[in-house]
Amino acid sequence: MICMDWRHIEELIASGKAGGLDFINLCVWNKTNGGMGSLYRSKHELVAIFKKPGA
């Protein structure tokens, strides 16, 4: 399980596949408060679910 914001989700999925993992699903973690450091703060994180082939 790896968390990332929407800006880098393509890189996250590509790196998991390059590492030999199978992409299973994309889940949304709805947080209580938005994050810091941006004008538009995300109140959610995207969670990529991978699995090892054959597992």
TrEMBL record:
<dbReference type="InterPro" id="IPR029063">
    <property type="entry name" value="SAM-dependent_MTases_sf"/>
</dbReference>
<protein>
    <recommendedName>
        <fullName>Site-specific DNA-methyltransferase (adenine-specific)</fullName>
    </recommendedName>
</protein>
